[in-house]
Structure formats: structure tokens, C-alpha cells
Amino acid sequence: MNIYGAFALSAVIAYLLGSLSFAVIFSKLFAKDDVRNHGSGNAGTTNVFRSIGVGAGICTFFCDFAKGAAAILVSRLLMSWAGYPADVPENAPIIYIAESVAGLFAVLGHLYPVFFGFRGGKGIMTLAGIIFMLSPARFLALLGVFLISFAITRTVSVGSIMDGITYPIITFIHCWFFQRAQDPAIYTTSYVLVQVAIAAVFGLIVIFKHRSNINRILNGTEPKMSFKTKKSAAAEETAAAESTTESAE
Length: 249
Description:
Elements: H1 3-18, H2 22-31, H3 45-51, H4 54-81, H5 92-111, H6 124-134, H7 136-153, H8 156-182, H9 189-209, H10 211-219, H11 230-248
Helix pairs in contact: 1-4, 1-5, 2-4, 3-4, 4-5, 4-6, 5-6, 5-9, 6-7, 7-8, 8-9
């Protein structure tokens, strides 16, 4: 296999992996229903937690993360077969680009899944798995940004948007001040800029997919995150309905 074949095949496999919409799969397994018919209508982890329940949400969380990581592993394997093993430092730039292309196609698969009518989620957990494989250090930095944002606002979308904004910045700082300092022959200015550009593309996708969330945040109507079972959520809805009825009487 040559390098062009490795790029193309990894992109196709990554897209198909991304197209496995675990939010839909687990909502049907746990609730015999499609999560896209509930809540925000989004086929993602947060909506599964809110609309289906904790069990389905946890399964979706881990599987969406895993498919992003798997896309990178497939690309790494195919690049090795093409003569670019990851343990050779000089191969780092081309391998990073190949893995990033695979990651992009995995995200596109999640956003527009061929197996589920091209109606997917926003790609956050899939992208998290991708970034974890590309750079564990950047993943940890972004996790910190997310947790701080979530702790302050109790809103998942704010954490995701902040990660989209800061990802290129974190990538530049990590590449320029840490990796380049250790190995300037590999981490040239052009290679650093390529990594920042790739991070910017991923960040823009995150922000673009959160357009409606941004509008709700600005209007003060974005819902806070609560981890409830589907049964308890239904009970609260029933109680609220009864309270409304009693008030009307």
C-alpha cells in the first residue's frame, strides 16, 4: 500500500466508524425510541443523558469517544503498512496530517452518519477521542478548560464552545513552547502552523455546530445539565403537570 492509498482508506474507514451513531443505537436499546425525537433533537451524549437516562448516556459517552480513538489507530496502522511507522521521529509530520484527516472524516461521519439518515450529533465526544490519540497533553488541557467552564456555568455547551475556541491556542502553545523546544528539527515553524491550522478547523466545526446553543446562551435560555434517570425525569414532569393542574383548579 502506498501513502495515497493509506490516506484514502483511513478516511473511508474513519467516516464509517464515525457514522455509527451510538446515541441512536443506545436510545433504541434502552428506551425503544430514537433520541432524535426528544429534547434538543441532537444525536449526542448530552441529549441521551437528558432524554433517555444515565445508563444509555454513559454507554454513548464511551463509545463515541472510542470510535474517535479507533479512527486514529486505523490511520496509524495503515500509515505503518505504507512505510511510515510511528516510531520513526522523521515520520511525525506526515503521520499527524494523515491521522488528522482520518479524524476529520470520523467527525464528519458523526455529524452526517450514512447509516442514520445523515442526522447526527455535534461530534464533541468523538473529537475528544481523536485529540486524546493525537496529543494526550492537549487533551488534558482541553479537559481542564471544559471542567472549569462547566463548573462555573453548569452548561455542557459552554464547555464545548470554550474548548473549540481554545484548541488552536493550546495547540500553538504546546507545539511552539514545548515540542519545538525539545526537537526543533521535527517541529519546524511550518509543521507547527499546520497543527494549529488543523486545530482551528476542528474548533470551527465545534463552534459552527453549536450555533443554536450560542443563541440560547445569549438569550439566557440554555438548559443546565442534570444527571437524572429517565424514570426520575418522567416523575418530575408528572409532578409538574399535577402541580399545574392543581393551581388551575
